[in-house]
Amino acid sequence: MILSVSRRTDIPAFYSDWFFNRIREGYVFARNPMYKNSVSKISLNPQVIDCIVFWTKNPSLKFIENLHLISAYNYYFQFTINPYSSNIEQNVPEKQLAIESFKELSKKIGKDKMIWRYDPVLLIDECTIEYHVNFFEQLAKQIGPYSEKCIISFIDFYKKCEKNLNASNIRTLNESDIFVLVKKMYQIATNNGLKLETCAEKYNLNAFGIEHSKCIDNELIERITKKKIKAKKDKNQREACGCIESIDIGEYNTCIHNCLYCYANYNNETVLKNTKNHDPKSPLLIGNIKETDIITEKKMASFLENTLFD
Question: Which residue has the higher pLDDT, 306 or 118?
Answer without folding.
Answer: 118
